[in-house]
Amino acid sequence: MRTIARAVGATLLLAATLGGNTRAAERPDDPLAGATLEKIVLVARHGIRSPTRAPAELKAQTGRDWPAWPVPPGQLTAHGRAALAAMTDALGQRYRQFGLLPATGCPAPEAVAIWADAADDRTRQSGAIMADRLAPRCDLQSRALPAGHADPIFNAVGTGAAKRDETRATKALEQGVARDRDHRPPPVQAALTRLQALVAPDGCARPAGPCLTEPLTLSNPHGTPHLTGGPLLAATIAENMMLAYAQGMAPEQVAWGAPNAAALLATVLPAHGYAAALTRRQPAFAVPRGAVLSRAIIDLMADLPVTLPDHSAIGPNTRVILFAGHDTTLDTLAAIFGLDWTFTDQPDYTAPDTTLAFERWRLKDGSRVVRAVILHQGLEQLRAARRPDLAGSGAATLPIGTCGGATLCPAGTLRPIIIF
């Protein structure tokens, strides 16, 4: 499966095509030469957070000691705030260069709308940081539902705004279990083997485990299907190691003293991508979960008004719309619109601060197209809280699978994937 193959660490870097702006592009063969960027929808993962489980709980799962963090589980760190601020500075610079944000002064009233998931502090705080840095000293505001409220923008199933077909979801997971049993991708097996040797060399020989290389299994408590097994725990371990490295922790805190932590992460993070590909990137899960957000993106690209969960509206004059969400949000949209990407400088394709952009351009002939662009910080840029180059290696244009693989999708034809 193509999505899984990309998610487990293929090294292909999609070409970064930064396109034209309000002036003619430098390359005359550029399809966006002379085009004007009219509107963007940005969907961003929050900044660097601590693991969502406390060190004691992680030790109970893995048998290894885990580092203490300066914040409670699942919270944004000070370093994470600084890294996200740097990322947002780069986003602001990119879209000022394209003429979408003013080169000086502040955007017009109602030109920018920022909406954050209310479910977690980290998303609300990330929205506030991005509002502060996207157009400095302009008093932009990030809005959200009251803290802790479920938001249909980010999870339509969890709020009842959409319903998941549990039979279809179960079948998708059953197929994933069968593929894992018969054709586990080599990069994933290598990741699991490396993590097993690092965390619990004899774990598969002990009843208490953990055995990270064991086959996946499907359980269905209360009619809700989900996967279990060592590869799922391995995915969590790999992501938590990445977060510790991005936070700037010392090698003994990142991977219990294993040498060359960055290279180690490149080896083990395919386990994290694999788990996402088998679960939240499955259309049976992604389409209902992202039903509200994907519809909003399509409507915004068509200049149709979108009503937010607080009953306020984004009108046709709003040119910059930003949703502050999670890695799950990025995976969901990737599945819905047939998007796929990897990075050469970042082994986690949905790492903190990664931002998916839907850009609407007006071409010289007056026609309009939508372009999908993935924007990110490299692993070392995250660790140093450094601004990425979004005019170069930090930006990549994506083929849109639901638009026949085109990189410029005629406005009005952007569609979600159809599941049968």
Automatic annotation (TrEMBL):
Keywords on record: Hydrolase, Signal
The keyword Hydrolase appears for this protein: yes
UniProt cross-references to Pfam families, sorted A to Z: His_Phos_2
Keyword Signal carried by entry: yes
MF (Gene Ontology): hydrolase activity
Cleavable signal peptide: 1-24
InterPro entries, sorted: Acid_Pase_AS (IPR033379), His_Pase_clade-2 (IPR000560), His_PPase_superfam (IPR029033)
Listed name of the protein: Phosphoanhydride phosphohydrolase
High-level lineage: Bacteria, Pseudomonadati, Pseudomonadota, Alphaproteobacteria, Acetobacterales
